Amino acid sequence: MKMFWIAALCLVFSATGLAQTADTDPATADQVELLLRTMHSHDMIQRTMEAMLKPMDQMFHDQFRKDGKKVPADFEPRFTKMMNDMLTNMPWEQMTQATVPVYQKHFTNGDINNLIAFYSTPTGQKFLHEMPEVTGEGMQAMMPIMLKYMSDAKARMQQQMKDMEQSAPKADQDPSAQQ
Fold first, then answer.
1. Which sequence spans correspond to the domains of the chain?
2. Predicted TM-score of the model (pTM)
3. pLDDT in tens, 52-67
4. What are the start-end ranges of the E strands in the chain?
5. Which residue of 45, 49, 87, 116 has the smallest Cβ count within 10 Å?
6. What is the DSSP letter of 176?
7. Half-sphere exposure of 33 (CA within 13 A, CB side)
């Protein structure tokens, strides 16, 4: 009877160890591909890009105005065609395959299984459905802040470059003469 309990304990501990190992094992390519399908990654990327079109369109309009130029009359249809062509010709399958090793590098078997479980829930699916719009609206909300920051940063960098140019020795000067 004592041997039975020893064997049972060994079995329990080894099963627990196996379960822990499976959670910490690297994710397989098949698991990652299942996660990406569960996340509807192709659709989500495309919808995110489409949601970002409005802020990008606005950014181009603002840049034209800032440069003192008028937006060309055919800008909208040309911009829409350009973006549609880009989305249509995007190498989605190649991009997906390129990301599989990245997921494998950063996530374990257990991580991927937990992500699949989450994205399979109604909340996970809602997150995936809403994320492109959230991203697009977030970009639109951030755009004025980013443009102001970029304008200010550009002005500071130009001033710093000007200061460096003024303090730099002339090309025909002997650098040892300044010491």
1. 35-154
2. 0.59
3. 777 777 777 777 788 8
4. none
5. 87
6. G
7. 8
